[in-house]
Amino acid sequence: MALSGSTDFTLSRDEIAAAILRKMGGAKPLSAQISTKNQAAHVAQSVNLMLKAWQTEGIGLWKAAEITLVCDTTSTYYDIGPSSADHMSTTVVKTEIATAAAAAATTIVVDSYTGMTDGDVCGVELDDGTVQWTTLDTPASTSLTIDDALTDTVAVDNHVYTYTALPARPLAITEARLIRADGTETPMDVVTWDKYTEIADKSAGGNPTMACYRPVLTNGKLYVWPISDSVQKRIIFTARIPVDDLDAAANNADIPVEGLRALIWNGALEILPEYDVPPDRANRIERMAISTLMSLQAYDYEMGSVYFDVDNR
C-alpha cells in the first residue's frame, strides 16, 4: 500500500459551498434572488456569518496568538488593532545597541539583526528615556540603516525593537505577562472593567501588574496598571484573533481541517430556511450539524493537568 505522504488537505470557499449544496440534495432556493451564478457567493456569506458567530461561543483555540506590546511611560491604555498608533505585533524582535550613536545618526549598530526585514517598523530607545519610531532599510548586518535620523543620543545597551505588522483586533485576551529589561517574566492579572475602574490612582507608575481588555470596534483597548516606568519593559499577552474571511473563490477556510465537516453540515443548516428541503432531509441536516459541532467543540480545547487541593485535616 502506497501512502500519499501528504497531510495538507483543505477546501476552498467554493468547494465548501459546493459540499454544502450537495447536503441540500439539489433543493431549490426559495428566493428568486439566488441563482446558479451567485449561489456560491450566497452560501459563502452565510458561512462567514456563521464562522464569526462561532467565535462568540468560544470556538477558535487555533487562532490564539502571542502579541508583544512595547510599553511607553505615559499611556494608561494602548490601542490594539490594525490601525493602532501604538506598537505591538506577533513578530516583535528585541535587541540592544552595541555601539553608542550620536544624535542625527541614520545608522545604528546592534547586537543582532536576526528576524528583521526590509521595511520593518523600528523603535530605538533614546537616552531621554523615550522610543523613537522609524523604519528599517534592508537590514543585512548588525549595522542597521534607519529612515529617520536620531533625535537624541543612544547609549550602549539601549533597547531596539522591530516588527513587521500590527495584529488584528483581538476578540479577547486570556493571559498577560510583564517582561522586564533582563528578560524575566511576571504574570499579570487580567481583570474585568469593573475591577479596573476601582483603581483610585490610574496614573501611578511602576511594574504593570494588571491588564483589562475592551474589544471596542476597529481597535481594542488594553488598559494597563500601573503605567510602565520604563520603555525597556514589554507586555506579552495571549489573544484570540478573528478567523479570516472567506472572500475569494480560492480562499481556504481559516479552521483546522478537522473542523471542515462541522463547517459543511452547519453551513447547510445555516441556509436551510432559504431552500425548499424535504422534512426528512432537513431533520438529517440538523442532526448532523449538532453532532459535528459537538465533535468540533470537544476537539477545540486546551489540554492540561487538573489539580485537586485535598484538605486532609
Please specify the SSE layout and strand pairing.
Elements: H1 13-23, H2 39-56, E1 64-70, E2 77-80, E3 88-89, E4 93-99, E5 107-110, E6 121-125, E7 131-135, E8 143-145, E9 159-163, E10 172-179, E11 185-190, H3 193-197, E12 205-206, E13 210-214, E14 220-225, E15 227-228, E16 234-240, H4 260-271, H5 279-299
Parallel strand pairs: 11-13, 12-15
Antiparallel strand pairs: 1-3, 1-16, 2-14, 4-5, 4-9, 5-8, 6-7, 6-9, 10-11, 10-16, 13-14
Helix pairs in contact: 1-2, 1-4, 2-4, 4-5
Defining key terms:
2 domains, 5 helices, 21% helix, six-stranded antiparallel sheet, 25% strand, 313 residues
Question: If you had to describe this structure to a student in words, what would you say it looks like?
Answer:
This protein folds into 2 domains: 13-60 and 243-299, no CATH class; 65-240. The longest helix is centred in the last third of the chain and has 21 residues, at 279-299. The strands form 3 sheets. It has an 8-stranded mixed β-sheet with strand order 2-14-13-11-10-16-1-3, with no helix packed on it. A 6-stranded antiparallel β-sheet has the order 7-6-9-4-5-8, with no helix packed on it. It has a two-stranded parallel ribbon with strand order 12-15. The N and C termini lie far apart (61 Å). It has helices at residues 13-23, 39-56, 193-197, 260-271, 279-299, and strands at residues 64-70, 77-80, 88-89, 93-99, 107-110, 121-125, 131-135, 143-145, 159-163, 172-179, 185-190, 205-206, 210-214, 220-225, 227-228, 234-240. A hairpin with a 5-residue loop joins strand 13 (210-214) and strand 14 (220-225). By secondary structure, the chain is of the alpha+beta class. It contains 5 helices and 16 strands.
